[in-house]
Amino acid sequence: MIFKVTPKRSGLHGKGLFAAKDLSAGERLIEYKGIRYEKGVVPNMDIDGLTKFLGLSDGSGIDGTGWAALANHGCNPNSELRESESRGRLRAWLYALRDIKQGEEILWDYRLEVTSTKEAYSLWSCACGADDCRGTMANPERLRKRKR
Ligand SMILES: [Zn+2]
Fold first, then answer.
1. Ligand 1 center from residue 14 Cα (angstroms)
2. Residue 125: inside a domain
3. Model-level pTM greater than 0.85?
4. pLDDT per residue over 124-144, tens digit each?
């Protein structure tokens, strides 16, 4: 089996996910796998666990345990999560947003739903190093809305 991505120590945070070969824009990389939770049910998690819990658009969630959950947040990401229904349930995969060179770190924008601006910048501060880093892993649209 040839993997498109592989886990490796990251300069950003803990272990990250990296391109195991040159990847093309639009390519499906890896499924976001983990423990499934019914709509409205959220497991008890520590801070680190919170970034691995993926809320899906139907209200259910995945507590990520696979390689995809290792992918770090980036404010200028090279990949994104897309949902699609398969075998009767919603699933999520990481897709390349642009061509990615072998060895590049796979980053996606977590867009965490947070309860306050303070939480966004204290608990979920970001130092991804992108020129346009917004300083938080929180959902920027949500923050703008709350400021009004
Ligand atoms: Zn950032």
1. 16
2. no
3. yes
4. 999 999 999 999 999 988 776
